[in-house]
């Protein structure tokens, strides 16, 4: 299951770092424009309303009939003082000398209204704010269009900046991905061309140097130790082979020699595997037939079955399979799988089958508990009844990975276990 994180990556962070200030500035600009227009409208309309009130007052005092000649942008009401029944509801609360923005029924925009008492009459003057409101909307619309344009431009600039910032990182990642263990590493410094990123490059180079030194020491130790063990081990195996040919030995001694021969062979396989892992992947081409190796492994494991009751290994080869791997490695894998089947087969028959897809080794023992299946190929993992050191199946996995093979296991408690070695990836 992949873990989900809310933390954005480097490129989204660059975008956010660029866009957030732009959004703040744009929001402030729109608010400032709106506030400025409100203040401007207030000052302009109050000044104009005061002038219109003085003009209407003068006309009313001269002749009330002259109010009918006022322009369409003015509405006037003259009522007895305190009698507001004939006024629109929005105008009624206005007191003498006050000014308010009001709505009239059917109007699209507000009116700026004021009141002046003249004797026992109240004069209401309402200034139509339609031109000012329309101008304010147009200016706010222009501000929004300019803001959105600036936002779009900021997004483009942020994307371009993130691309520029990430370019040396991508170059560095490309060079790092091209590093092959054991080969001369390319110089990573020119990949960035950035002094700040060179800090990461220098740290990465230092880590790689330590890794290379560690791997070199491990490979040298493994190779030296394996070569030092090869010669005496070959002497032990050849000597055991000569002693086994002595017909005067008792059956008990023969069995003991067989166990010693098996242990020496197992150590030889382990040394060969260690040498393989110590060497880098080579370009050698092998053409190893599998069925003769399987028969050799069955013969080598035969002495282990001599102590089992009613035990046998049935081998069936539908076709010959050739693999690109040394015969010693194929023998090591098959031997380890057979030994595992012998140890857990409870003396029952073991079926070995080779076909075009791979090699199947099935025992009819107690099976493997589901909890242990996921750990079978772990280093040093041993089953409940295992007599080994927990390295056999681990080596099977390592060798298979080295040559591109795949190992699968299927087990049912009480019915046995089947290992299938697929030679094709």
Summed up, what is this model?
With 425 residues, the protein is of the alpha+beta class. Helix content is 55%, strand content 14%. A hairpin with a 3-residue loop joins strand 8 (350-354) and strand 9 (358-362).
Keywords for this entry:
14% strand; alpha+beta; 55% helix; single chain; 425 residues
Give a structural overview.
- With 425 residues, this protein is of the alpha+beta class.
- The chain is built from nine helices and eleven strands.
- Strands 6-8-9-11-10 form a five-stranded mixed beta sheet, with helices on one face. It has a four-stranded antiparallel beta sheet with strand order 1-4-3-2, covered by helices on one side. Strands 5-7 form a two-stranded antiparallel ribbon.
- A hairpin with a 2-residue loop joins strand 3 and strand 4.
- Helix 1 packs antiparallel against helix 2, helix 5 crosses helix 7 and helix 7 runs antiparallel to helix 9.
- The mean pLDDT is 78.
Write the topology of this structure:
Blueprint: H1 10-62, E1 74-80, E2 99-102, E3 111-118, E4 121-128, H2 130-177, H3 189-192, H4 195-244, H5 251-278, E5 288-289, H6 290-305, E6 313-317, E7 322-323, H7 327-344, E8 350-354, E9 358-362, H8 370-373, H9 392-403, E10 406-412, E11 416-422
Parallel strand pairs: 6-8
Antiparallel strand pairs: 1-4, 2-3, 3-4, 5-7, 8-9, 9-11, 10-11
Helix pairs in contact: 1-2, 4-5, 5-6, 5-7, 5-9, 6-7, 7-9
The shape is rod-shaped
- Count of alpha/pi helices: 9
Helix content: 40-55%
**What's the mean pLDDT score?**
78
Taking the sheet with the most strands, its summary is: 5 strands, mixed
Order of helices and strands: HEEEEHHHHEHEEHEEHHEE
Low-confidence stretches: none
Which strand-content bin applies to the residues? 5-15%
Please report the total strand number as a whole number: 11
Major sheet: order of its strands? 6-8-9-11-10
Gyration radius over CA: 47 Å
Q: How many angstroms does the end-to-end distance come to? A: 24 Å
What is the structural class? alpha+beta
